[in-house]
C-alpha cells in the first residue's frame, strides 16, 4: 500500500498533463505555442494537435522510470554492490528514481500548461526543476556512500 501512495503524485501530474492536452484539443484552437525563448515569450507556433506530444513523452518517461524504479539493479552505482549492502542500496536507488519521476511529471505538466497558455513559462522555474533533480541525485548518492 505504501508503494501506491508514493506513486500518487507522479500519476496525478501525468493524468493532469493528459487532461490539459485533451482540453487544448477540445478548445478548437488553431495554433498553440511550441517553443519559448529564455524570457518565456513564444517564438514558434504550431498545430494544436502537437499539444498531445508532451503528455505522450511524459507517459513514455513515466513507464521507463517506473520500470527502473522496480528494477534498481540496472542502475549505475557510486559504491560497490555486495551481498551486505545490496538491499539498502537498491532501496535507496528506488527512492531516488521515484522522486525524480515525480519531479519530471510535474515539469511536463508545467510545460503542457504553458503550451495551453494557462501559466507563463519561466526559464527560472525550469532551472529550479533541474537543480532539484540534481540535488536528489547528489543527496541520494551521498546516502549510498554510507551503505558501503
TrEMBL record:
<dbReference type="Pfam" id="PF07853">
    <property type="entry name" value="DUF1648"/>
</dbReference>
<keyword id="KW-1133">Transmembrane helix</keyword>
<keyword id="KW-0472">Membrane</keyword>
<feature type="transmembrane region" description="Helical">
    <location>
        <begin position="96"/>
        <end position="113"/>
    </location>
</feature>
<feature type="transmembrane region" description="Helical">
    <location>
        <begin position="119"/>
        <end position="141"/>
    </location>
</feature>
<dbReference type="InterPro" id="IPR012867">
    <property type="entry name" value="DUF1648"/>
</dbReference>
<keyword id="KW-0812">Transmembrane</keyword>
<protein>
    <recommendedName>
        <fullName>DUF1648 domain-containing protein</fullName>
    </recommendedName>
</protein>
<feature type="domain" description="DUF1648">
    <location>
        <begin position="13"/>
        <end position="58"/>
    </location>
</feature>
<feature type="transmembrane region" description="Helical">
    <location>
        <begin position="45"/>
        <end position="68"/>
    </location>
</feature>
Amino acid at each position: 500500500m505504501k508503494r501506491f501512495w508514493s506513486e500518487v503524485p507522479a500519476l496525478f501530474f501525468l493524468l493532469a498533463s493528459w487532461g490539459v492536452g485533451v482540453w487544448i484539443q477540445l478548445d478548437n484552437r488553431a495554433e498553440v505555442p511550441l517553443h519559448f525563448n529564455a524570457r518565456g515569450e513564444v517564438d514558434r507556433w504550431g498545430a494544436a494537435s502537437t499539444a498531445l506530444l508532451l503528455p505522450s513523452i511524459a507517459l513514455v518517461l513515466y513507464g521507463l522510470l517506473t520500470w527502473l524504479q522496480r528494477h534498481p539493479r540496472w542502475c549505475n552505482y557510486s559504491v560497490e554492490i555486495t551481498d551486505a549492502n545490496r538491499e539498502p542500496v537498491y532501496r535507496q536507488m528506488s527512492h531516488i528514481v521515484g522522486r525524480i519521476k515525480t519531479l519530471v511529471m510535474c515539469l511536463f505538466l508545467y510545460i503542457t500548461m504553458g503550451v495551453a497558455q494557462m501559466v507563463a513559462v519561466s526559464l527560472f522555474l525550469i532551472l529550479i526543476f533541474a537543480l532539484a533533480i540534481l540535488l536528489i541525485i547528489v543527496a541520494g548518492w551521498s546516502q549510498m556512500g554510507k551503505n558501503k
